[in-house]
Design the sequence.
């Protein structure tokens, strides 16, 4: 049954909107039954898309919308975690105070640098790994599961291991550096070293995950594209560049969007790296991300209103990135 | 952002320009997925595998030692003899039997719901035409941007209002669908699902649900498998929200594990044994079902 | 859309989806229900009292629940533990705010008790008038901490944290310092400055690879907790910017760090554990609950090497309370249990097992405390040492943002000096800025 699915792939796949579908060509005449059927058919075509997206939006409305709106409303108030009912209206004060809040700007900058340091190598490595996994391999399933284990490994375990790796006095990395004559590095205290270390945890946790997503998409690339490329004498590398990567573009874009969002919300890894009191992101907040700052405000200082304002600011920043992205994409398309 | 830009068909343009010459060695260059991995591929994979597995293996090592040995340097790199004792302590202290049962239920329900709802929604966004489509898609992506730490307080108010605290549905329902999943399936199906197939079925008078059942689901299977696996793992390891919604009386694994290491001196070895107990079933499930889901279906989908 | 049929149809679709959703909810509710009832435990007619704590309580391990259940056959006790207070307390706040998910008894750490006694006082039962509670049983300052302005007491004191100094005899000997615990106590009796001076002496003849103490923050904490007014004065005014207690303790900590006396560690982190195992430092300010920690981390190799001496000045670091939320299901039974658990006799039993010093002085003369000796610490009479320290602790004034302010000094300012090599002036400024940001509403 799946053969049919792959057989007719090709030129039309780009027309994602599809063309407006007409009732079946061989309409069974103008009879009453036929009219009912064709009307049913029209309804089906017109409304079932809504039914398809409805469960998602229903659940979102039930469990996502209220928190989102509440958060927005709370961000305009002075409200503490200890008494969320006791709200005092402050207008935009929670937002204006962010403008000259050095801690906020510091966190924003860290979020950006850690985001770049972690996302770019991670996605490139994931793409390469997916390509390798796509080969015919012995024990194919073993490699896949193995590369996904970081995603499945518990945070408690990962914490202990990374602290052991990056410890200043007794860390394995410093021990290895020492073996080749390099002085011990105080990973957690330095700005760049700590951001590098945090990025490495992100990369460790998410590379296999992205590789698996890429792999799934690669499996859907039809063989004939490779065949014709091979007939052209394309090398493996050229096949990868000219067949695999273009075919994966929606998926790659997907992972970029998700990783960007993930990087903006980065939370677990720096928290974990910071150990006890990790929400501060180091003595000088040198690896405190926006996610951590939000957490510190809400769950350590208990200022729910301010935390909500940080969250909405993050939300708005992401929307801004999205808007800029969309505009650029439209420009590009027009110029082609 | 709504990514219509990315869907131009990337047909290998120059294909017919040259006459097919003699094929290079049989089987080696024929097609991408038939290529055998060379020694370099194995070496690279092995390297990454070691890096990926190390923390897990070390968890097992730590779980087989005693707490004071773990603090000493160099840290132990090989197994000790305390594994059964630590596992036993973790099992009884953390109410692991119930926790595992609950977690299988919760993660299973979430994975099932996510795959089902996100596949049909993703299909609608990828291939169907309806009003407000791009707005709704934007909204979907927008919901991903809400920092997850934030909704916790209002969400708990909802759960408390429904008297769901300490009930499993308080963990299942809020995470039963995911914007990530919808977006993921949409991006996959845009490329993987040929529009002509749907049109052909339409011409034959197939209803939307028939199209979903007979065309979309078979094509979507690899992505569904991956999404199911990722949702399952995510649900399994989630603790930020469950720790608020549940208590140790009716815990998931991650909630149960937070109760380990009681007393003024948390026993690291027992904590690691608990972590191991919490992770192993997951890996076991991967290996068992992963073979079927990811391996089997992927082969089937492509080779037919 | 056009025409009413379209709208109708759409509505039908939505309704159908809602119905499906409702069915699903029903299904899940049943699942959850069965799973929950499976654990509900408790036979017919039994009351199950739940108690929510963070890691440091040892009631179950000390057999107190079992004993209570024997005394009250109609009661079953269920404990729900979250190891770390920084995960436990936000959960408690969320539950209190929503009025759901609460245990019948909830524990509160000393750093949070003021907030509970002020902002959240209305959400807890007043335990001062509960049957069997005698205010005079508790240390006065402990009782005060959990009592609001109207005289309602929201929590009963459990343990306290009088400070001593743990030191390594082997390292002291090599550095030419006395090793007997009385003599060591005399080295710095009365003044933390003498402790620093001892550190200077240690440094001159320090065994290779060792330093005098673990961290600047440790010195700071030990010193500051000896002052009645630290971050707030008696009228509740915040004085963290110029309080003499802060200034003096800060200067001591800076001296220790700048003088190279510290191992530049952060307490309760893994490298700190490793430093114990590797005998990296010779002393650490230790409340009773830290003895077990040292024993575990220093391991067999440290046995009989560590000992306990009196601290320069009596001070309190840590300790907890238990209270009964108004939203608790079994309030009356919970109050009875809470009163019993915190009674002097039970606190003494808990010390025996858990080394947490009671907040009820009459326990100190009970044999479990009076005769206690710690075999790992060279048989040191820990009961007497800590009880003596406990009796002289001044009444500590605490305020709402106690935890945030304390953390800013230890985890930001002093850590910047200790680990990042920043100047004390810059670090002080960073600390003040940190606090202003944290306490600003």
Sequence:
């Amino acid at each position: 049954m799946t053969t049919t699915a792959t057989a007719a792939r090709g030129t039309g796949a780009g027309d994602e909107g599809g063309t407006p579908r007409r009732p079946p060509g061989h309409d069974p005449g103008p009879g009453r039954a036929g009219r009912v059927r064709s009307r049913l058919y029209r309804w089906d075509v017109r409304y079932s898309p809504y039914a398809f997206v409805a469960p998602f939006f229903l659940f979102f409305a039930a469990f996502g919308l209220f928190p989102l709106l509440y958060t927005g409303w709370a961000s305009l108030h002075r409200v503490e975690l200890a008494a969320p009912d006791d709200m005092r209206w402050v207008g935009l004060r929670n937002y204006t105070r962010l403008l000259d809040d050095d801690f906020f700007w510091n966190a924003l900058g860290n979020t950006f640098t850690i985001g770049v340091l972690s996302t770019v190598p991670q996605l490139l490595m994931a793409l390469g790994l997916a390509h390798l996994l796509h080969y015919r391999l012995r024990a194919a399933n073993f490699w896949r599961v193995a590369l996904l284990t970081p995603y499945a490994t518990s945070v408690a375990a990962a914490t202990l291991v990374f602290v052991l790796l990056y410890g200043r006095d007794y860390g394995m990395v410093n021990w290895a550096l020492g073996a080749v004559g390099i002085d011990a590095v105080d990973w957690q205290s330095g700005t760049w070293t700590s951001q590098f270390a945090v990025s490495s945890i992100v990369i460790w946790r998410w590379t296999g995950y992205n590789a698996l997503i890429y792999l799934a998409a690669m499996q859907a690339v039809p063989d004939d594209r490779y065949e014709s490329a091979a007939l052209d004498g394309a090398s493996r590398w050229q096949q990868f560049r000219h067949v695999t990567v273009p075919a994966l573009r929606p998926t790659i874009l997907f992972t970029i969007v998700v990783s960007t969002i993930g990087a903006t919300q980065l939370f677990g890894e720096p928290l974990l790296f910071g150990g006890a009191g990790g929400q501060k992101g180091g003595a000088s907040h040198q690896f405190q991300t926006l996610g951590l700052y939000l957490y510190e405000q809400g769950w350590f200082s208990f200022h729910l209103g301010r935390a909500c304002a940080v969250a909405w600011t993050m939300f708005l920043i992401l929307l801004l990135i999205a808007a800029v992205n969309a505009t650029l994409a439209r420009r590009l398309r027009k110029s082609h | 952002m709504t990514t219509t830009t990315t869907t131009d068909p990337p047909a290998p343009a120059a294909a017919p320009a040259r006459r097919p010459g003699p094929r290079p060695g049989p089987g080696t260059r024929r097609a991408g997925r038939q290529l055998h991995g060379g020694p370099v591929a194995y070496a690279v994979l092995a390297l990454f595998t070691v890096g990926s597995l190390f923390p897990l293996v070390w968890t097992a090592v730590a779980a087989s030692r005693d707490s004071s040995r773990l603090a000493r340097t160099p840290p132990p790199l090989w197994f000790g003899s305390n594994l059964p004792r630590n596992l036993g302590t973790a099992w009884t202290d953390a109410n692991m039997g119930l926790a595992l049962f609950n977690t299988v239920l919760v993660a299973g329900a979430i994975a099932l719901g996510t795959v089902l709802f996100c596949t049909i929604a993703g299909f609608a966004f990828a291939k169907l035409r309806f009003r407000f489509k791009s707005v709704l898609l934007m909204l979907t992506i927008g919901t991903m941007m809400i920092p997850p730490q934030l909704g916790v307080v209002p969400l708990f108010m909802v759960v408390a209002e429904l008297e769901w605290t300490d009930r499993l549905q308080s963990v299942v329902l809020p995470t039963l669908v995911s914007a990530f999943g919808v977006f993921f399936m949409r991006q996959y199906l845009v490329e993987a699902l040929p529009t002509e197939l749907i049109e052909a079925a339409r011409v034959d008078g197939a209803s939307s649900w028939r199209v979903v059942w007979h065309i979309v689901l078979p094509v979507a299977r690899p992505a569904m498998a991956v999404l199911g696996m990722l949702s399952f793992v995510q649900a399994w390891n989630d603790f930020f929200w469950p720790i608020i919604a549940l208590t140790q009386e009716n815990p998931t694994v991650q909630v149960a594990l937070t109760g380990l290491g009681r007393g003024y001196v948390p026993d690291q070895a027992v904590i690691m044994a608990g972590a191991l107990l919490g992770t192993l079933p997951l890996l076991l499930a991967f290996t068992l079902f992963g073979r079927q889901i990811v391996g089997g279906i992927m082969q089937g989908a492509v080779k037919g | 859309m056009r025409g009413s049929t379209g709208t109708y149809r759409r509505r039908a679709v939505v309704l159908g989806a809602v119905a499906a959703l409702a069915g699903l909810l029903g299904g899940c509710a049943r699942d959850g229900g069965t799973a929950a009832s499976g654990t509900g435990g408790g036979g017919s007619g039994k009351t199950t009292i739940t108690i929510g704590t963070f890691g440091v309580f040892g009631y179950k391990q000390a057999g107190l629940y079992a004993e209570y259940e024997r005394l009250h056959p109609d009661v079953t006790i269920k404990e729900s533990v979250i190891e770390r207070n920084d995960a436990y307390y936000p959960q408690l706040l969320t539950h209190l705010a929503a009025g759901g998910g609460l245990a019948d008894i909830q524990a509160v750490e000393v750093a949070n008790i003021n907030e509970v006694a002020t902002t959240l006082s209305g959400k807890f039962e007043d335990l001062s008038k509960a049957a069997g509670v005698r205010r005079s049983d508790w240390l006065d300052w402990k009782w005060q901490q959990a009592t609001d302005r109207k005289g309602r007491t929201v929590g009963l004191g459990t343990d306290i944290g009088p400070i001593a100094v743990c030191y390594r005899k082997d390292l002291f000997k090599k550095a030419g310092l006395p090793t007997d615990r009385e003599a060591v106590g005399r080295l710095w009796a009365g003044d933390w400055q003498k402790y620093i001076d001892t550190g200077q002496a240690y440094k001159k003849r320090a065994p290779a690879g060792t330093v005098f103490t673990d961290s600047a923050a440790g010195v700071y904490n030990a010193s500051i907790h000896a002052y009645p007014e630290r971050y707030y004065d008696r009228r509740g005014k915040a004085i963290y910017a110029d309080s003499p207690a802060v200034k003096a303790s800060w200067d001591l900590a800076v001296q220790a760090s700048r003088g190279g006396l510290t191992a530049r560690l952060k307490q309760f982190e893994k490298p700190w554990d490793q430093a114990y195992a590797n005998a990296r430092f010779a002393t650490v300010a230790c409340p009773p609950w830290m003895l077990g920690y040292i024993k575990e981390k220093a391991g067999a190799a440290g046995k009989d090497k560590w000992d306990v001496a009196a601290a320069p000045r009596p001070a309190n670091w840590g300790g907890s309370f238990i209270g009964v939320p108004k939203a608790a299901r079994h309030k009356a039974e919970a109050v009875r249990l809470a009163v019993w658990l915190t009674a002097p006799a039970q606190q003494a039993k808990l010390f025996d097992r858990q080394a947490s010093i009671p907040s009820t002085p009459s326990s100190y003369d009970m044999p479990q405390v009076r005769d206690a000796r710690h075999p790992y610490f060279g048989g040191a009479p820990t009961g007497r040492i800590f009880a003596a320290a406990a009796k002289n602790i001044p009444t500590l004034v605490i305020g709402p943002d106690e935890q945030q302010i304390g953390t800013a000094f230890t985890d930001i300012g002093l850590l910047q000096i200790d680990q990042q090599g920043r100047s004390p002036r810059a670090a002080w400024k960073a600390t003040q800025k940190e606090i202003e940001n944290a306490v600003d509403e």
Observations:
- Chain B has 13 helices and no strands.
- Residues 1-33, 296-304 of chain B have pLDDT under 50 and may be disordered.
